[in-house]
């Protein structure tokens, strides 16, 4: 079954949005790496790292869905 344009049209913005969310989590972690070093700030930094760890695989899954749909449409598999 070949991926329809409408499927690709939805997967592309989904992928782009997940990349933007991932970038935001990386920037949040980066911002917290540059603050005063106390226990509360360290805890926030650690939480930001966990959020980034969770977002990376979600972004990669969205990318795979988008790539698979493009591959199916272009090459038929």
Describe the overall structure.
86% of the residues lie in helices and 0% in strands. The protein contains two helices and no strands. It has helices at 5-33, 39-75. 10% of the residues are buried. The model has no long low-confidence stretch (mean pLDDT 91).
Count of separate DSSP helical elements: 2
Strand portion, in percent?
under 5%
Query: Any idea how many domains?
Result: 1
| Rg (C-alpha, Å) | 17 Å
Distance between the termini: 8 Å
Beta strands, count: 0
- Percentage of residues in helical conformation: over 70%
Shape: rod-shaped
Order of helices and strands: HH
Low-confidence segments, given as residue ranges, are: none
Mean pLDDT comes to: 91
* Largest pleated sheet: none
Structural class computed from helices and strand pairing: mainly alpha
Task: Summarize it.
The protein is mainly alpha-helical and 77 residues long. Helices cover 86% and strands 0% of the residues.
List keywords for this structure.
77 residues; mainly alpha; 2 helices; rod-shaped
Which helices and strands appear, and what pairs or packs with what?
Elements (H helix, E strand, L loop, with lengths): L4 H29 L5 H37 L2
């Amino acid at each position: 079954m070949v991926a329809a344009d409408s499927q690709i049209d939805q997967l592309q913005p989904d992928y782009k949005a997940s990349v933007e969310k991932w970038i935001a989590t990386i920037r949040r972690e980066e911002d917290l790496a540059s603050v005063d070093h106390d226990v509360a700030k360290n805890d926030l930094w650690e939480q930001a790292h966990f959020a980034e760890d969770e977002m990376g695989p979600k972004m990669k899954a969205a990318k795979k869905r988008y790539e698979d749909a493009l591959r199916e449409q272009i090459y038929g598999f």
